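User: structure tokens for this one?
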Amino acid sequence: MIDVLVLDVNETLTDMEPLRDGFEEVGLPRHGLDVWFAEILRDGFALTAVGEYVAFRDLAAGLLEERLVAAGIEPSDEKVTTVLSGFTRLPLHADVEPGLRRIHEAGIRIVTLTNGAAAMSENVFRNGGILPLLEHRLDVSVPRRWKPHPDAYRHAAEVCGVPVERMALAAVHPWDIDGAHRAGLQTAYVDRRRTPYPRTFSAPEILVPDFVELAEILQENAK
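Assistant:
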């Protein structure tokens, strides 16, 4: 039983594949998206581990410029904007809207919590039809700690006014599931890629392939 469902954003709700078009437009290989995004998370985690905070966009821009230089391409603000602006136009995965609508109808409050900027996804959520379902759209700029640091999840609990144990995080990233579990939240792993869950991380209470099935479980538990 939970009062609030906390949602990760990038990859969990959004399909990031269209960002490959931006990579191609500035002259970078489409497959470079995967390493670049992993590098952003790596550096965000590393800075958090030593008590520092840098915004997602600043890390993303700097690492993108490095990739351009390594590819023999002159970096520019225009090229960086071409790629980063793609985050504001991403589509939602097909199961997100129907799943979240059913969860909302079950009386469960829904918030998002991202390592990126909350404002970056507003049009994405509006276009995808889920903006009215979200009570809060949160990011890590206030606690100044990237997920999976416990302060990020505690910030969400403080904003919502509920104990962490009455919240659950839904995400596609095992590191996010593990961080939320250690902070005291319940967890739901959305296994879109049907990949084995890493044994080194805390196991989720719920494992589902998509948000429609998660809605079925939460609706049943809410009865």
